[in-house]
Amino acid sequence: MSVDGPAPGAGDYVVRHGWRGFLGSVLGLLAWTGIGVLGWKAHLAHLGTRALLVAVAVEAAFLLACGTKLGQALQRQAVFAVGPDGIFFGAEGPQGQVTVPWGQICAVELFREHARAGRSGSSYRCVGVRTPGSHQVPRAGSGAAAQPLAERSVAHLLGAGRPDLIPGADGTIRLAYRRMSGWRVRRAGLTEAVHRYAPGVPVVDSPGWPPALSWADAHRAYPRREA
Predict the structure, then answer these.
(1) Are residues 57 and 142 in the same domain?
(2) How high is the mean pLDDT of the chain?
(3) Contact 163, 134 (CB under 8 A)
């Protein structure tokens, strides 16, 4: 996997930043502004300066996001590409711009990453690549979905009789990925491009991250005790 690899060429399948991300940020800004104005009139005014500073900080974060997405849309930066050298991931994530060569890729994957922040949660569509391996290894600068599971989570999966959900159980591990935030890949175009440059590499749907037990699995692992 090369950092700051070659930019996508003219004949590659390329996804560039468009207006989707900017419009999403604008809608978020407008929604927060409306909530903030109504909330200030109803409740926040009684909470004092601290509540006002928090509201202003969140507003500033939305404004910054809008500016960033606007710049990306105007510059038409490439965020993902499939080419003769491999899979290109633009500088969207903490890992920075990388190109993963075909020799390291055994599958291109689409999956969802679920993230929790307190009592709320978000779900992100993701595109990534997998490489042969029996144990997920830490990926410096990569997102959580490219890191090993915590020991407690592994113990839960083993206790539920689902070792198949542990990364590496199928002989592959996640090498790199990106959340499709404000942009999307077309599955048909992605599949066509992958088969053009690497006919033996499949495009697959991977389970969501982190691995989740079904209700039946959880019930078998932790049966309710009879009173």
Answers:
(1) no
(2) 79
(3) no
